[in-house]
Each structure stands twice: as structure tokens, then as C-alpha cells.
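Standup, Tuesday
Yesterday: got the pipeline producing C-alpha cells again.
Today: sanity-check two examples.
Blockers: none.

Example 1:
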Amino acid sequence: MATIKEIAKLANVSSTTVSRVLNNDESFSVSEETRNKILSIAKELGYKTLIERHQQKQKIIYRIALIYHPIIFKDFIDSDYYFSIRKGIEHLCLQYNIELVNNPVTSHEKITELHGVIILGNYSKHEIDYFLEGVETKHVVIVGNCPDDQKFDSIWFHTRMAVQQGVEYLQKYGHQTIGYMGAKQHIEIPEEERRDVIFKHCLERNGDFDSSIVYIGEPGEKSGYELMVKAIQSNKLPSAFFIANDPIAIGALKALNEAKIKVPEQISIVSLDGHPFTALTNPPLTSIHVPTEFMGATAIELLIERLEKERKIAKKVIVPTQLVERDSCKNLS
């Protein structure tokens, strides 16, 4: 089948022009003469867009591998963040007849005849190199913190914005003693992406940071419960906690309920991730929502763009977050 590059050469225009004409981009301005020339050459060469091939119900258009460490899917509550990303990936694969090969890194299965790879999670450059050993494709998208923006496409959320949204919301509500709970983060995540570091910088501006009410443990609901028990036993509870992970927040809330410490009457909580269970807790948690399913779908779109438009330069997509107000915060002001 003809490529966009071949059509562009024959039409004496750029590949971008060809792509936007063939995909009926209404925002793109081009003369009717050029448009007709491109369409005529494409028809003559038998070129079909991805959507046209999908409409023809071909069996398989592309074959993509999803690579991840299996620990990130160990439990639904603790791993909904990644399940939601995978849902977005699978939805678009189904829509476009893309074969998705799930490949946890412990399987050591060699995958052949791939058009692209999606790596799900936060890993070091060394780990990613290991994951890609023997993989015969240059098209790689990382859904997570990317250690090499020059080499790989990636999609991630605006971490600083997310933490600032939570902290500023609590400050607007008059909270001056704000504690932090979160999980240990990968050693190679840069400081500007670390949730605990961003939290500290947010509070240091007003001189309100107190390291004695910062609690960092393992990921997951169980760890959140244990961290909050520790905080309660310290007899130094702040008026509010920013909790950097929804499963930790769910576990922390369980510990507070068991100790009969009322939320939000005695302590307020803002969490981060947008886990669906945060709407079902008692009380429902105010949370910073990360558009995880959208991130998964965007990962597929990045790969399609690489394959269809022959893009050579790596692209980094940063998505915004949204604060969802519920009933876990008390206004002290």
C-alpha cells in the first residue's frame, strides 16, 4: 500500500499537507487544485486512511504490545489508576481493529511482528531498555514519567498542577496545618515530578511546612490505613491532609472512621488520582481527577500518528487535572 510520504513526493507537497487533506481536516486551508491533486494521486495508488481500513472491517490493521510490570495490576482498589489507562487503550484498539498483546515483563515472551509498543508505568531508563530487548519496533509510547523525552513518545498528567490544586483548595478553606501522606516514588523520578517535593514547595511559600506531619509509606490501601494509625497515635493531627494517592486516602479514611475521628468535622482530606471509589466512601472524598482513560486512548493515537503520518520527532503530551469537590473538606475561613 502507498504511504503518505510517496503521495507527498508525487504531489510536490509536505507529508503533513497530504495527511490533513486525506483525513478531511476542516481547519486546514489548502487550494482546491492541491486538494484534488492529492486525492487523485491517493486514489490512483490505492491509499486508504486508518478509518477507511477500519470501515472495510479488515481483520488486523496494527499489532501493538502493552508492556508493564505485573505488580501494577495486583489489586483493583490499589491499581484502578492503571486499569483505567488500560481500558482507554483497549477501547481504541477495539475501535480500530488493532491487536493488543498484553506482555507483563516477567513472562519473558518474545513478541514479533509488532508495529508499536506501549509501556505502562514509571520506570528507569535501564528498566525500559530491558523491557525493549528483542522488540523489533522503533515506535514506543510511555504512559508514565518518561526518562528520555528525545527518544520516546509519552503521555503524563500535570503533576505540579494536581498537587497545587489540592493544597490551594485547602488553604482557601483556611487550613494552615496541612499534612501529607503518599507512597515512596521511583528513585529516578525527577524532583519536579515528585508529589512530596511539590507539596513541600507549596507550603514553604507561606512558612507552613511541617515535616513532622509528613507520612510516606508503600503504595496501596493497606499502607494508607497504617500511616493514618501512626498519625493518630502521634497525637499531632493537622487540620487537613493532602493525600497523594487515592488508595492510600481510602485506607486512611478507614483508620479515621475506626478511631471515630470525624471527616470533615475534625479533619479534612483531599486526595489525588480520581479513583471511582472516592465517590462511594464515607464521606465521599474530594479528589484531584486524572483523566486516565483519556491518557490510554491518547497513547494509541500517538502510535497511529507515528505510523500514519511518519512523524520522526518524539512528542510529550501533558494532560491537565480537575478538582472534584465532595464532602471531605471543612471550610475554616
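Example 2:
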Amino acid sequence: MGRTLIAGLTVLVAGLAAAALWLGVARNEGRQDERDRQAAVRAAAVHAAALLTLDHRTVDQDVARLVATSTGQARDGYVKGRDAMRQAALRREVSQAGVLRAAGLVSMADGGRSAEVLVVGDALIRWGADGKRGGDPGGAGEPEERAYRWRMEVAKVGDRWLVSRAELVQ
């Protein structure tokens, strides 16, 4: 009877240890899921802040920030359009400063490796000393306020979250 009791207690302790381990793993997975959700939103917000900030005096660094915070289709677009963006910013002497208003997670997909995030920001755009706006010779020299709303797809690449698509929405 003593051996049966010891065997039963051993099985019980092993079962409790396995249950505790399983609960610990599940709790850690839940924490990692929450960290990923927060990191996805943060990545979209950082990318949006880079989109909201453009200055003809720092255009190369500004575009580099866009490239550094993106991947896939978005990154390819910034790399291909880098020279055109630079030339337009220099020619028009554009200075855009913005404020991020909000960013929120819409959904997670692909086993927590991709997400959709909505981002809202506002910017004030100033055009060069020539008083022209957007290359329009008759344009006003007054600053222009713009509101931006993006739907961004972000992807986990290694241990970093990067924007793979940024789409303006109404």
C-alpha cells in the first residue's frame, strides 16, 4: 500500500508540475501577443511620423527614415521614388512638420506576424521663399494644413515590426 501511495503521489506531483508548466507557457504567449500588438502599433506610428516630417534641408535623412521603417512593397516604393522625392522637395523648398494624433490596431493575422493599423496625423506644409505652392506659379505662399489618415499593414521581420504598405484613406 505504501508503494501505491508513493506512486500515486509521484503521478500527482508530475501532473501538477506539467499543468504549472503549461499555464506558464500560455501566460508567456499571452504576454508576447500583447507585446507584438503594441510593437505593431508603435511601428506604424513611427512610420507615420516619418511621413509627416519632410524638409528640403534634410530630405535625404527623411527618406532614409521611411526606408528604415518599411519593408516589401512600401520600402521598394520609397527606394524607387527617392530621387524624385528629393528633387521635388528641393525644387519647391518644402518644409512639412506634422503631429501624430492617434494609432490603433485593427487586426492581427498570419499567426501574429502581420497586422493592420489605422493612423491619424496632421501636418503643416510650408513652401519655399518664392511663394509658390506645389510648383504652381500662381500658388499662394501661405502654409497649408493637411489631415492624413492611413491604413498601414505591418509585418514582423525577424524581431522588428516594419510597414509593408501605407495607404491613405478618407
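Quick observation on example 2: The first helix runs from residue 2 to 52. The chain has one domain: 2-168.
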